[in-house]
């Protein structure tokens, strides 16, 4: 039987296996850097930054202490942002959740072909996870006692690093913090500092490029979507979402709000990620706002056939623009640079 997180969590309750926090110990695993996948991007091939050595003690995203005898080399990653971050740091993960989905949605960094497939992000295959012999497992959670953290601590002596995937109060800052945390755990702090400096410079240049753009309105909403049954579902990115923050940095004004979301029978913008959900009619609530969207999700054919869509001011005036494929809305610094470039092209109608 393939053990997933859900089945393992149930077993943990029955057996009441108790370990001290896995992040506070170390693990002995077979293999090392020599048999781990290698990051082969041009940036990593030309990278001259150093990797630290020696023991590591860090505080993770939910306040847990994580101790390692040495920088992690064989990391398993359960979320795409963190997988992208690892590749940008030139540390190729040995195992990743849903690498096929990653390849569809994320283009900033390419995973190694031999990476172990851990199944879905929400329900990873624990047998595959432990079989990959990681020396660090990187997960995303908002609480130290989240089910995934408890299960991994109870089932394995592999250290667990918990990152917080989003912060609506400071989405760009959180993106940087997650990246820096993974860098600390892998000894790649010098590389992280260089990447983040490049990101800041890229954003500053983009601000300057669009500073004199003459838009009919600065209001905007970015959205993605999908088909659910026979219904077209639209997911607007509200205030606090990472892509919304990029737009704001470039002088745009978020158009999707809690008030709009609740007016269409929803519970308001998600407080963790800044995301909402509506139908196509809901987009009429943003009036003249510029519309930016992803083409992934298989929903755009239905979108473009809709009379509602084609009657929206932004569509009629050519201010509804699709971002390039593979620009991930919850990624790291390199995805962030791609998003900034997509916004610039849309604003300047390139």
Structure description:
- Belongs to the bacterial solute-binding protein 8 family.
- Its main location: other.
- This is Siderophore ABC transporter substrate-binding protein CdtB.
- It is found in: Cell envelope.
- Keywords: Signal, Transport.
- It is a single chain.
- With 350 residues, the chain is α/β, with parallel strands linked by helices.
- It is 37% helix and 14% strand.
- The chain has 14 helices and twelve strands.
- Strands 5-4-3-6-7 form a five-stranded parallel beta sheet, sandwiched between helices. Strands 8, 9, 10, 11 and 12 form a five-stranded mixed beta sheet that branches.
- A hairpin with a 2-residue loop joins β8 and β9.
- α1 packs across α6.
- It starts with a helix and ends with a helix.
- About 8% of the residues have low confidence.
Q: Give the spatial strand order of the biggest sheet.
A: 5-4-3-6-7
Which percent band covers the strand fraction? 5-15%
- N-to-C SSE string, H for helix and E for strand: HHEEEHEHEHEHEHHEEHEHEHHHEH
Query: What ranges have pLDDT less than 50 throughout 5 or more consecutive residues?
Result: 4-32
Largest sheet: 5 strands, parallel
Helix content: 25-40%
Global geometry: globular
Structural class: alpha/beta
Region (Disordered): 29-57
Subcellular location: Cell envelope
Domain Fe/B12 periplasmic-binding: 74-350
Family: Belongs to the bacterial solute-binding protein 8 family.
């Amino acid at each position: 039987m393939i053990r997933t997180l859900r089945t393992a969590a149930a077993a943990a309750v029955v057996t009441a296996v108790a370990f001290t926090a896995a992040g506070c110990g170390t693990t002995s695993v077979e293999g090392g850097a020599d048999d781990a996948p290698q990051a082969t991007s041009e940036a990593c091939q030309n990278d001259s930054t150093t990797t630290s050595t020696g023991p590591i003690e860090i505080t993770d995203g939910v306040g847990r202490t994580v101790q390692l005898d040495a920088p992690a080399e064989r990391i398993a990653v359960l979320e795409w942002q963190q997988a992208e971050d690892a590749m940008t740091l030139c540390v190729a993960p040995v195992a990743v959740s849903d690498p096929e989905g990653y390849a569809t949605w994320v283009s900033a960094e390419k995973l190694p072909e031999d990476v172990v497939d851990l199944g879905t992000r929400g329900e990873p295959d624990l047998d595959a996870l432990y079989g990959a012999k990681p020396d660090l497992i990187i997960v995303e959670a908002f609480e130290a006692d989240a089910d995934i953290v408890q299960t991994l601590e109870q089932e394995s002596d592999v250290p667990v690093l918990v990152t917080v995937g989003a912060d609506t109060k400071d989405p760009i800052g959180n993106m940087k913090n997650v990246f820096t945390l993974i860098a600390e755990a892998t000894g790649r702090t010098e590389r992280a500092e260089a990447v983040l400096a490049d990101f800041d410079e890229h954003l500053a240049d983009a601000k300057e490029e669009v500073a004199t753009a003459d838009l009919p309105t600065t209001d905007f909403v970015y959205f993605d979507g999908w088909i659910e049954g026979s219904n077209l579902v639209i997911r607007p990115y509200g205030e606090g979402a990472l892509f919304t923050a990029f737009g704001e940095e470039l002088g745009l004004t978020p158009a999707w709000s809690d008030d709009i979301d609740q007016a269409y029978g929803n519970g308001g913008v998600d407080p963790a990620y800044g995301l909402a959900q509506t139908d196509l009619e809901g987009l009429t609530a943003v009036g003249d706002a510029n519309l930016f969207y992803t083409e992934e999700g298989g929903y755009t054919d239905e979108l473009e056939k809709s009379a509602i869509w084609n009657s929206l001011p932004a569509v009629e005036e050519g201010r509804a623009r699709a971002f390039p494929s593979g620009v991930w809305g919850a990624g790291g610094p390199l995805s962030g640079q791609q998003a900034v470039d997509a916004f610039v092209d849309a604003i300047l109608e390139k």
